[in-house]
Amino acid sequence: MAKRLMKGNEAIGEAAIAAGAPNYFAYPITPQSEVAEYLCWRLPEVDGVFVQAESEVAVGNMLFGASASGKRVFTTSSSPGISLMQETISYMAGAHLPVVFVNIMRGGPGLGGILPAQSDYFQATKGGGHGDYRIIVLAPSSVQEAVDMMLWAFDLAEKYLTPVMLIGDGMIGQMMESVEFPDKYREENNPDEIEWALTGAKGRKARICKSLFLNPEQLEENSFLLAEKYKKIKKAERRCELYNVKDDNKIIITSYGTMARICQTAIDELEGEGVSVGLFRPITLFPYPEEELYAEGSKKNIKCVLSVEMSTGQMVEDVERIMKGKKKIDFFGRTGGVVPSPDEVKDKVRKILRIKK
Fold first, then answer.
1. C-alpha triplet 306, 309, 315: angle, nearest 5°
2. How confident is the model at residue 56 (pLDDT cuts 50, 70, 90)?
3. Residue 225 has what pLDDT?
4. Are strands 304-309 and 328-333 parallel, antiparallel or unpaired?
5. What single string gives the DSSP state of each residue in 199-232?
6. What angle do the packed helices 216-236 and 143-160 form, to 10 degrees?
7. Which residues contact 250 (CB under 8 A, 6 or more apart)?
8. Range of the domain at 217
9. Taking the model in full, what pTM does it have?
């Protein structure tokens, strides 16, 4: 596989093509508009389809229709745009349809700003729309990982018939890194070979794709069916990465995405000062690797679990819940587009350990 230097947004678009998903519906919004810019000329080369809709609400409904017809489809957007798609995300979860969403997060709430943030954690992991549903959430920390996770995302969406969301911040979308793609790209789905796809009646039993159940017992049955699906996902699909986790750690940092890379730099520099800190990076935010975090965070040598985020404190609530009061939990974050520096992370660690600079 040859290496290519690509901007994150462009690499995400190419990764979707590699995954056999040349069907893209979107509406431009900073800081992810380069995905659409790239695909508007790239998709015609692979006989793909790109429709720029009149709004993100329209995008969501286009995705529903295309997915229901058996097509492998995706979209990319940024925070406010994803908010406008929440109704359809809930519909697609309720209808058991596979689709991939990419959220290149920006600062909020409201229109906020166009600089990177991680303040959509609640929206992504807790089900930003209505009803008893969840979606699988993946969090890459590099452009290469974003490419790999796009390939994985379509596998997960079709395996569990569920929406999957890849979330990165504006840095992931805008940075350029060396990436590799598979030598052989996947073929697009053939809807006639998919047992649930709506391809028109051809002498077979009718297929119905819906999330509307006016009978309460039927709605309850569907909701419990979803709940069982999420239990299976929690058991089978948890992923995390450990960095510098050792027996002499006094603190373990939890952080995800590009923020975790900044924490790695801080950890390396602290190690040079004789201060041992480990990093627990969740790769799947839903399902969150709860058992793995509890196992590492509850070790005797750990004095504190520190959540570092580009938000005012969202993932830290999951960390507190998971640790069940076993250890002290602390938080450090910047938001609004302000990115914490390695020095700020180091200062927070020194403060917790009462080390004078």
1. 75
2. very high
3. 97
4. parallel
5. ---SSS----------SHHHHHHHHHHHHHHHHH
6. 140
7. 275, 276, 277, 301, 302, 303, 304, 353
8. 3-236
9. 0.96
* Burial of 255: CB neighbours in 10 Å, binned 0-12, 13-18, 19+: buried
Tokens of 203: 């002498």
- How far apart CA 127 and CA 135 sit, in angstroms, is 7
The pLDDT of 188-214, averaged and rounded, is 88
**pLDDT tens track for 281-317:** 999 999 999 999 999 999 999 999 999 999 999 999 9
Taking Cα atoms as reference points, which of 110, 103, 134, 123 lies closest to residue 8? 103
* Residue given tokens 């290469």 in the structure block: 144
C-alpha 328/C-alpha 334 separation (Å) is 21
121 CA to centre of own chain = 9
Number of folded domains that form the chain: 2
Residue 1: what pLDDT?
61
Using the structure block, give the residue that is written with the tokens 């995405």.
257
Q: What's the CATH number where 166 sits?
A: 3.40.50.970
Which residues neighbour 181 within 8 Å (Cβ) at sequence distance 6 or greater? 1, 4, 14, 15, 18, 147
Q: What pLDDT does 202 receive?
A: 74
Q: For strand 240-243 and strand 99-105, is the pairing parallel, antiparallel, or unpaired?
A: unpaired
pLDDT at 119 > cutoff 80:
yes
Statement to judge: residues 246 and 232 lie in one domain: no
Residues 220 and 265 in one domain: no
Q: Which two tokens mark 284?
A: 């799947």
Residue that terminates a domain, selected from 210, 236, 262: 236
- Whose structure tokens read 């979860």? 93
> Token digits for 340?
């914490």
**Of the candidates 194, 187, 190, which has an alpha carbon nearest to the alpha carbon of residue 20?**
187
One domain for residues 249 and 187: no
Tokens coding 278: 């480990």
Cα–Cα distance for residue pair 72/56, rounded to 1 Å:
19
Query: What percent of the chain shows pLDDT beyond 70?
Result: 99
